[in-house]
């Protein structure tokens, strides 16, 4: 292949890769990144309690603290007016802001309670499950109302 043809192919690949992606610096890109981190962290915590991952109390406590910090971050990346890009958020996020913000505060409160539960020693999975369930319920409540699956 000649240099000219290779350059054209390379430029086409670069141009195509730029299409359809989410700008990581956009509000959508920022909140998606945070939500992915939250999901990974909460899956690890739930996995420890459900036996999919070996339980480690110290790691659980660290994960609870990380999840609590993350739970306060995505809300700032919801602009006051809906973006035109492809978001999983329903229009209700912008039309029912007070309710959306209340569910966000509920999640923050639940993750705060999880941090407290994660500090109680000796670590026992049975003592941590109600706090994890409360976090999962808070996530689910918001998704049911405000996320377009």
How are the SSEs ordered, and which strands pair?
Elements: H1 3-18, H2 27-49, H3 57-71, H4 92-95, H5 97-117, H6 125-146
Helix pairs in contact: 2-3, 2-6, 3-5, 5-6
Shape: elongated
Mean pLDDT: 86
Helix content: 55-70%
The low-confidence parts are 6-19
The radius of gyration over CA amounts to 20 Å
- Helices and strands, in order, run as HHHHHH
> Strand percentage, roughly?
under 5%
H/I helix tally: 6
Give a quick account of the main beta sheet: strands, pairing sense, barrel closure: none
End-to-end span in angstroms?
Answer: 45 Å
Quaternary structure annotation: single chain
Structural class: mainly alpha
* DSSP E strands, number: 0
Textual characterization of the structure:
- It is a single chain.
- The protein has helices spanning about 5-20, 25-50, 55-70, 90-95, 95-115, 125-145.
- It is an all-alpha fold.
- α3 (about 55-70) runs antiparallel to α5.
- The model is unreliable at about 5-20 (pLDDT under 50).
Task: Based on the model shown, name its key terms.
single chain; 149 residues; mainly alpha; elongated; metal-binding; heme binding; electron transport; iron; Cyt_c/b562
Write a concise synopsis of the structure shown.
This is Cytochrome c. The chain is mainly α.
